[in-house]
Known about the structure:
The structure holds two protein chains of two kinds. By secondary structure, chain A is α/β, with parallel strands linked by helices. Chain A contains 14 helices and 13 strands. Chain A is globular and about 65 Å long. The N and C termini of chain A lie far apart (72 Å). In chain B, strand 2 and strand 3 form a beta hairpin. Classes of the chains: A alpha/beta, B mainly alpha. Chain A: It holds the Pfam family Peripla_BP_6.
Amino acid sequence: MTPRKTLLGLAATAAIIAPAAAQQRIPVGHLMDNSGATSDVGVPYGQGVADTLAWVNASRNGIGGRPLNVLGFDYGYQAPRAVSQYQAWNRDRVVAIQGWGTADTEALVRFVTRDRIPFVSGSYSAALTDAGGKSGRQGVEPAPYNFFYGPSYSDGLRAMLRWAAEDWKTRGGQGKPKYVHMGGNHPYPNSPKAAGEALAAELGFEVLPAIVFALTPGDYTAQCLTLKSQGANYAYLGNTAGSNISVLRACQTAGVNVQFLGNVWGMDENAMKAAGAAANGVVFPVRTAVVWGQDAPGMATLRQISRISDASGNAYRPVHYMAGACAAMLMVEAMDTASASGGELTGERIRNGFYARQGWVPKGFEGVCNPSTFTAEDHRGTLRVGLYRAVVTGDTSQGSVAELMQSGTMKLQPVTVVELPRTRETLGW
Amino acid sequence: MDLAPAGDYRSSYREDMTIFPTRNSRLAMLLGLALLCTAPLFLGRYELGLLINIGTLGIAALGLNILVGFTGQISIGHAAFFGFGAFASAWLHERWHIPVALCIPLAGVMTALVGLVFGAPAGRLKGLYLAIATLAAQFILEDFFARAQWFTGGVAGRITEPFSLGGWVADREESYLYVVIAYVVVMYLAAANLMRTRDGRALIAVRDHYLSAEVMGINLAYYRTLSFGIASLYAGIGGALYAHYLLFVSVEAFNILFSIQFLGMVIIGGLGSVMGSLMGSAFMVILPEVVQAGADLLSGSAIDRALKLGASISFLREMAVGAAIILFLIFEPDGLARRWRLIKSYWKLYPYSH
């Protein structure tokens, strides 16, 4: 064979192999909010998911030797846009999706159930946990393909209320403590409202009428004055960090003395810097066992992942980034399970992959990701809620988040870990 | 192509009023429809989804065009009526178990009645004042959606059922497309015919010069309010079709930005043009997808790295839509409909365009 023919032959072989190799890539959808109402927390979470999936491709060549083809899409927190993008992904035959908000996740429940596509959301609405649809609660549909990493909004609030009841005793409070739910009139802040108020009443709190403030930053002095005049002791903040900061600052100015309880998206290191001393003392659930800067066996892996988008390795990663990494790894390992048994990667097999382990911590993430357990009836991955307190001791206007955390001006202080009972009554609620 | 001979050969009012001027234009329309009906054979679900969106939004945009383009009124609350239709259809089905096929026109009628109520100020107000009155409609209805648990399911939204007729269930893009095509044909023919009636001409007269219209004996308050009713009917039917396509309706979707988007469709498509409404909605649906595709190509490329765009690429789409509207206002204030006419006449007269 002449060299020229060899070359031609090689080129022809390459031409045949190249598309075949391209087909081997596993399409995965990634819905993110980088420009909408919840982009304050959507950006770090989405970055965490994207970096982790890129790291999976780079470090272990994807799933069973087939790299992931991650199809990212910024939907600006608009549910209809998410639905139309879902149709596009359906065309590309994605086998699983990393999702985001409450409204779009709930809009897509029926679609992903119909098309059998596992959907790992950033929405922790308890309504998504009733996988078998057996709770019989009004408005709760079976969601066998919906998963999320961490405690549901309701369980997060239940844990904080249990802590608050103890806290009231240790502080030697007199009479009944007063509890109030605060947040926008929107599915996401509303999701744990009824569950929280019911438990608060049970634990001996006096439940005050809920206070509404919008999901966008604004002047919430009126809300703070209401808090003050009602004499609330514990207030739940149901929104994302941006608008919560407005409330915290307004309440600091108004001189309100109340213990704020944030939700998982309601507080983070960036919000602490923005709110400054006003954020001092806020208690909120953290989904990972450690935060950035602490040490655990799995932190080495996380630092590698962080280098995907930050070659210097100096970036400070907020709690949402780490939660995003854990959420992405749950999906990756479920896909491993689906492909390990020698089978095709279908949505149904990936879903079954989520059920394969008990007390599931992704490999290499020990001490970072909290253990999760999913069953065909119950998609409450965890009922163990780690509570942290935001501690701000000085001026946060100077220096980056990394520097402030390093110098100790801002700290995330572990408060307690609450283990909630896994009861049927609270499923889907 | 409607290849008409030079000169005006029309000798009766009937010929003057026809929607399709030549036999060929009628044939082209029928052929186009037939081609559209075979779309599920060669288009994927994503493209079909875009077509369905163009159809549902196009119906609502036509309603707004009747109000803005033909009657010369203004509304910045069109999305609220669109939403009312969506919720009404979902509610009619869930509460009264009316078949979805019947719910859609009923929802249109309910929305028309609501539109008449909110259109009442139009009998007295003009220009900016009317705009503010319709803004009120937007906020009142949005607040109603968020609070009326019995009607809308509150802020959590409401799950809707797919369209079914007899034993045929249109729960996929391939089947739902036919429902939308049927509604688009009926609603567009109705609008084109409306403009040939006395009432339709009265609406145009109100737009062209309200004082002259009144002198000619046209009841201004009546026709202005009627126009709101018709616009709401179209919005309601569009909204109902949207609800049974997405199978989920939530108050979040029907905000003021969406209202402005409807105005954008009408302006880009061409004020006072029936077909322009469809072109405008097609433009507004397809443009973000095209920009998105461009942004996907751009992200990670050399340009991205050189300019350090990163996450800012996400905002490209929003800016592109804004820029498109501005450019249209400057370079083509009569919209896509006029551009289409120019293209047609270019070919008709080719090669002697002068």
